Amino acid sequence: MQLLFLGILALFWGVTVAVPAQEKRVHHKPDLSDHAHDDAHGFQYDHEAFLGKEEAKTFDQLSPEESKERLGKIVDKIDTDKDGFVSHAELHHWIKHRQRRYIEENVDKHWKEYDQNKDGKIGWIEYKNTTYGYYMDVEFDDVEDKSSYKAMLTRDERRFKSADRDGDGVATREEFTAFLHPEEFDYMRHIVIQETIEDIDKNGDGKINLQEYIGDMFTPENGENEPDWVTTEKKHFSEFRDVNKDGVLDADEVSQWILPGEVDHADNEARHLIHETDKDNDGRLSISEIMDRMDYIKVSTITDFGTLVEDHDEL
Predict the structure, then answer these.
(1) What is the pLDDT of residues 254-291, one digit of tens each?
(2) Which end of the chain has fewer CB atoms surrounding its CB within 10 Å, N or C?
(3) Phi then psi for 38, rounded to 5 degrees?
(4) How far is 165 from 172, CA to CA, in rounded Å?
């Protein structure tokens, strides 16, 4: 089971499938909502941004009294400094938390199995023994592709050490999150870039040429014609990806490709909600201001979810 999980984790970057590159390599933040941000036609975007898309799928209307009671509990979670107000920073953090919930759920899923001594941290030795223990005892002799699993161990150790910011050999929850999801952390960008190049670079020159770039996405079978999107990707490679026009993608160009700079939609949404709700224009939201705009943020439909109030005490 452990080895299967590792295989999925380590091979995530390298499996060749016939899909456009933007669906496979490029790391975008998850959208705040599938709806258009158009307040003139409703507040569904704000509703999903505040709550998270999954929880917002079910709408259970509550009475005004129930809504206010549950809203108060949610606001208390958002108000981390307990000053009675929701600041832009706190609202921004909350929305990003809802955006990142899928990551946190993945970390939750694996935390207990790796924290063997239950000390609230995961050491490299714990992770290595849990994932590779049996196979290491026999030096991977029972594994069909021994060299691949040894490479996976080396790669995991490099990624773990990079995530372990203080170098003490153990990962806090934040560091373990960086290990599992390096694309989410600025200080792990070099690992994402390095692993991507290693996966695609077949000739070992440390760069990605056009053949390797296309080969990572598409391999024709039985005289299969080249799809239109492959032709488009070749054009993108030469016109946009290969910035210096030397015929290959170096680390900087790979970074621009797979980790593009993006607008912080969570920050924009936090500013938008405060602008629409902050009646006294002090740059923060009081509980009364939020209550007055319950119709705007659709609180009556977002507070009937126990996960917001009961399951996230770590916030």
Answers:
(1) 999 988 876 677 788 788 888 888 999 999 999 888 88
(2) N
(3) -135, 95
(4) 10
